[in-house]
Amino acid sequence: MFNWMRFSALFAKERKDFAKNKNVLLMALMPLGFCLLYANLFLSDASMGAMGQWEVLSLCLGMSLVMMSGYSIGMMIAEEKEKMTLRTLLLSGVRPLEFFAGKAVLTILISIVVNIAMFFIVGLDPSFLLGYVLISTPMVIMMTILGGLLGVISPNQMATGVIGLPLMLLFLLIPSFANFNATFYKIAAFLPTQRMNLLMQDLLQNSLFKSSGDFMTHMFVIVVWFGISLFSFMFAYKKVGIDA
Length: 244
Known about the structure:
By secondary structure, the chain is mostly helical. 83% of the residues lie in helices and 0% in strands. The protein has ten helices and no strands.
């Protein structure tokens, strides 16, 4: 059963520690910085339109998902292991969901705020904001779960960068090159970030639900990845508890 007292204690700890963690702050600010840079470089021409704006935003959103939603929580959990506080949490009976929620809620909220800020930086029509949030937020949560998995299996903070590199290459770079290479395009079809991009493109073209088959396929890939991520995190957390 979910214990709200343990969750509240973990959340309060993360809230106090966040402002002191320069690495996490950097992870939050980098996507915003690149979004401002790309918007000034590539969106000065009004003829780019909504799809051009989304191309810039999708690149920065992918960066936010990997760096802020994924890497940051992985680094925070790995830090707990370095300080031996994760062992204490495990022995105190903290459940996987309580541990993840306490560590991740602040990361998820900040990620959503960053993503919304980038939406306005690129200048997309505010009428698309609700759809954008509904499409991107499940991806934020999923990537945070994967980041939690990364932190649990990493022996220290330095290792999160090495172990997490394939995650960045997979979820960020492959969808970025999908339109330029047939092999990348085929691989990207199995990735949730690519499906998120396609959903957003359909939203901007007002064709989100015109093809129910495409919509269901996009959602199926995202849901499968969400389930795999959650199962893997819970399994890894319990394994660490056994080995602790």
